[in-house]
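fwd from M.: "can u put these together and see what the complex looks like"

so here's what she sent:
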Amino acid sequence: MPRPPAPDDDAALRWDEFDDPSYSDPSLSALAPEQGDDDAGHDAAGGPDGGAAGVDAAADLERASGARSPLETVLTALAAVVYLAYTVGWIIGIGLVPLSGPTVAIEIMYQFSEFLAIIAAPLWFAAVVSLTRDGRAAHRFSWLTLGTFVLLPWPIVLGVLA
Amino acid sequence: MTRTHVGVAALLSLLVGWFVFDGVSSLVGLPALFAQLGVDPARVPWVALWAGVVLPVVLYLAAIVVARRQSLTRFTLVLIVALAATAAVRLSLIALATGSILL
């Protein structure tokens, strides 16, 4: 019976596994711009506007990977807080608008529309964030700003003003 | 827009129809209620009442225009958002209109 190979206790402490796809040899990566056949490599070695094209390629890569600037993330989080406040405002505001339908069918529709009003703000936010994920930040924040005007919970605003 | 898009839009337009019906009911009923309560007819909130009739259609058509090139899932999501926004705007208009009695 053959003996199993002796375990290498230091294997986890070294970064020399050539089969690992994340491994990159520093001596080879120094040659990458000349040897690369991707678009970024061509842009970098291209004509006089190669630098700008390289920046565009980097921006495309960043957009494709879903990375966003910290400012954009902070503004989106701020909008999330505002829309959450709107949701709470609508939950409270529903009680300030006493509606009752004359028939059961109309009462059901009233209740359903009140439910729709409560979920309007989170739905708007989720739809804008998901639909503008690959788009420009200006589009996202334009739609989010529009939503803050359309979905303002007037029942509670009027209640506070009164 | 595919036929499925049109079918979804037609199905959800039933809810728009209800919002319009409700708006027309308020447009007819609230001035009568004001008269019954002896409120000055000049204080009838005509702008809010007419907005209650027109806005559901405007918001729904705008949603169709905005999302007409999207996939069916995204198209449906945008239409539902428009309906939810319509419900919120409707309640805001009711609050503004009935608040005119109290103020």
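replying to her w this: Helices of chain A lie at 26-29, 32-35, 39-44, 50-64, 70-94, 104-131, 137-150, 154-161.
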